[in-house]
Write a structure and sequence with these properties.
5 helices; 9 strands; about 230 residues; two-stranded antiparallel ribbon; 2 domains; single chain; Nucleoside Triphosphate Pyrophosphohydrolase
Length: about 230
């Protein structure tokens, strides 16, 4: 390193603002036929007053980003053992008015049958299509998370994380239609989904006055060799 380049490096470091490493978790579910996100109250004057935001916080020095995301989700929302994956890093210098913060964002999914955290003191569910006033850059974060979910529906089995362990094909199709916000041809959808060989029949519905519908379960989770839709 030359003397000139060394001085340039020292000057650059001197001008740097120390950045906080944080995580944010966009927790989604399908409730009341809508894609909904779990939000917590954010009231941190003078910059943020009576707003909402997704769960998250600082990454500890002894944990990975994913471990931190799972910890914040457990401690602040009471949710454990759910599908969670990193989907983006948000690093705009002005994303947090309080200090320089870089956030590793995670998408977490929970089935409707497991959402016993509705309207608790820690927060509540809001439709993604009708969000309240949000703090930080969480509006953009939720938008990117929702689009990420849509794109993964096509060639992964990520939808299994939003379903009960046993489900009917009508339930499966309805979930796809809600998330994609468009109808799907019933016959083509079922034919193609069965042909992928990723679900298996595990029984029939009980307590039905009509012919009991077949119950299915996913055989595996992962990337598909062919598109679902």
């Amino acid at each position: 390193m030359t003397k000139q380049s060394k001085e340039s490096f020292v000057e650059t470091v001197a001008r740097l603002r120390v950045a906080i490493a944080a995580v944010d978790v966009v927790l989604l579910s399908v409730l009341k036929n809508k894609v909904q996100v779990f939000l917590m109250p954010v009231h941190r004057p003078p910059h943020y007053r009576h707003q909402h935001g997704v769960p998250g916080g600082v990454i500890r020095s002894d944990e990975s980003a994913e471990a931190s995301a799972r910890r914040h989700l457990s401690e602040k929302v009471g949710v454990k053992d759910v599908h969670i994956e990193q989907f983006h890093t948000f690093s705009d210098p002005d994303r947090d008015k309080r200090s320089r913060a870089i956030s590793v964002a995670f998408l977490a999914l929970v089935p409707a049958v497991a959402t016993d955290i509705n309207s608790t003191e820690s927060g509540q569910w809001f439709p993604v299509s009708a969000l309240p006033e949000l703090a930080f850059d969480h509006k953009d974060m939720i938008k990117v998370a929702a689009e990420s979910l849509k794109s993964k529906l096509i060639n992964t089995t990520i939808i299994s994380s939003l379903l009960p362990r046993q489900f009917t094909l009508p339930q499966l199709q309805e979930l796809y239609e809600i998330i994609l916000a468009r109808p799907l041809d019933k016959r083509n959808f079922r034919r193609k989904f069965i042909a992928l060989d990723i679900v298996e029949i595990v029984g029939r519905q009980k307590n039905s006055i009509y012919r009991p519908a077949k119950l299915f379960s996913f055989k595996k989770w992962g990337v598909l060799n062919s598109n679902v839709l």
